[in-house]
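Thread: quick sanity check before group meeting

JM: Hey all, I'm pulling together slides for Thursday and realized we never actually wrote out the predicted structure for the chain we discussed last week. Dropping the sequence here so it's in one place. If anyone has concerns about the input, flag it before I start.
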Amino acid sequence: MKYCAFLRGVNVKGTNMKMADVCQVFKDAGMLDVSSVLASGNIVFSSDKNAGDLKKILEKAMSDHFSYEAFLFIRSLEETEVFWNSIPFESNNDLHNYAFVGNPGVENVLMKEFEAASKTENEKAEIVREIFYWQVPKGNTLDSSFGKVLGKKSLKDQFTSRNINTFEKILKKMNS
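JM (edit): ok, ran it. Output follows.
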């Protein structure tokens, strides 16, 4: 089965790694057809194992190899397609659209945080098919009140986010 591993905290805040090295760790852990998409920690691969087992195997392999506490989220091709096919927002050149990949129920935690945060003009969030989507004006992602919440230590193992355009690139790689 084809999967994508979405790694959290890669190439930010001092956790730097080359995607070629990450791909090698995946291959050494028994994954097949391994390749990366962008430098933000998206690894496409094949395996006959289930997502739960893969998460444990790959988090341990990444933690051991790179000497950091690895968090990653595994989604099948079909699950990854849902992220792309369920986008609730219109495309707009002035706005970024993000989708959040995470543990079951994290979308509700994120929505509570979003509702409690002060918002910039045109900033909004929606949950579609148990996926949290966030739209924010370009240039405000890290400065927005909600953007600051995303770095909370208490949430670090709960989710990771990707710009919607990244899902399009991942799906092209998964379907090739």
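AS: nice. Helices lie at 19-28, 51-66, 77-85, 106-116, 145-149, 164-174. The mean pLDDT is 92.
JM: adding both to the slides.
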